Amino acid sequence: MRTELERILRAGRENRVYSAAAWSVGTADGVLDRGMLGTRWWDGPQVTEDSRWDLASVTKPVAGIVIAALAERGRLSFDDPLPRHLPEYAGGDKAAITVRQLLSHTSGLPGATPLWRTHSTRAALLDAIRTGPLRTRPGTQVEYSSQGFILLGLIAEAAGQAPLDRLVAQYVTGPAGLTATGYGPVPGAVATEDCPWRGKVVRGQVHDENAVVLGGICGHAGLFAPLPDLERLGQILAGGAASLLKPATHTEMTTAHTRGLRRGLAWQGLDVPGSPVGTALTADAYGHTGFTGTSLWLEPGRGRYYVLLTNRVHPSRETAGIEAVRHAFHDAAVGV
C-alpha cells in the first residue's frame, strides 16, 4: 500500500523533477515512514538501500559538527579569528572574521560565486577567496556562502591536524555508525547533472564545481551517503546528538544566532516565509538542504527527523519543481 509520501515523490518522478527519490521520517526510537523509488539515472538501474547520493550542502552541518567537536576538545573556539588557524589571513580585510561568523553565514564573504570558472587549480581558487572582496562588514548581515565553509574545512584541518575526511570519520561518521558515508569518488552513485563543463553525466564525482577544483574533500560539499546512514544520523540528532556532541554544544549549534534569516551554527532555522521545506514544521525546526535535491531537517520539540534524497539536478540543474515537491513532502510528513 502506497503512503501519501510515496505518492508525492512518485509524482515528482513522473513529472521528471528527478529520476530517483528516497525518504525517511521518524523519531530517535524508530522509523515512521520510509522508502525509495526510481532509477539511479534515467533508464538506469533501480535505486536500492545501498545507493549513495551526493549530499551537496548537507555536507555543511557535518563539517560544522567536526568544528564543534574540535571546540569541545579545546582545539579551537567558535570566537577564534580566522588568522589564528589560517595565518595567511592576518592583516587583511578578513582578519577579524570569526569561526562563529563563518558557521552562521555572517562573515561577509559572498555567496553563489562560481570561482571554478576562472580559477582552475586548488591554489588559485583558495587565493581568490583570500584576496576577493567582502560583500558586507563581518557580523552585520546573513549571506549564504560556500566560501565560508571552504575555509571552515581548512580551519578544521589546521586545528585537528588531520585531513578533513579523516576528521569527519573520527568525529561524525565513526561515532554515529554511518558506515557508508564519505567523500567521493563513488562509482555507481546516483547520477547528478549532464555537466557541460565535464562533458558527461556525473556519476560519483561531486557535483559542485568548486569542490571538484579543490579535490572533492571540502567543508561545503563532497559527501555521499545512502538512505540508511542519513536515517541513522536523523535519529541521533532527533535524540539530542549525545553520541556526537555535549548537550550544550548541540543546543548552541541549533539555536538561531541571527535575526531575520534564522541561522544557527552550520544549521538553518525555519524562515517564515521563505523556508525551502515550507512552513508546516514547528518553529524550533532546523536543518539543511543540498543543491542536488537532498535535505535533512529536525523538529527538536517533537523529536522528529525528516530525510529527503533526490537527484533533482539530473539531467539538468534547470529542471523545475523541487521546491513544490519539498513543500508537499514536509507538509504531509508532519502528519505521519
How is this structure best described in words?
The chain has helices at 4-14, 59-72, 99-103, 122-131, 146-160, 164-176, 209-213, 227-238, 247-254, 322-333, and strands at residues 20-27, 30-38, 52-54, 182-183, 194-195, 200-201, 223-226, 268-269, 286-290, 294-299, 304-310. It is of the alpha+beta class and 336 residues long. The chain has a single domain, classed as DD-peptidase/beta-lactamase superfamily (Beta-lactamase). The strands form three sheets. It has a six-stranded antiparallel sheet with strand order 2-1-11-10-9-8, sandwiched between helices. Strands 3-7-4 form a three-stranded antiparallel sheet. It has a two-stranded antiparallel sheet with strand order 5-6. Helix 1 (4-14) runs antiparallel to helix 10 (322-333) and helix 2 (59-72) runs parallel beside helix 5. The longest helix has 15 residues, at 146-160. The two termini are 15 Å apart. The mean pLDDT is 97. Keywords: Hydrolase. Residues 13-321 form the Beta-lactamase-related domain. This is CubicO group peptidase (Beta-lactamase class C family). One of its GO terms (molecular function) is hydrolase activity. InterPro entries: Beta-lactam-related (IPR001466), Beta-lactam/transpept-like (IPR012338), Diverse_Enzym_Activities (IPR050789).
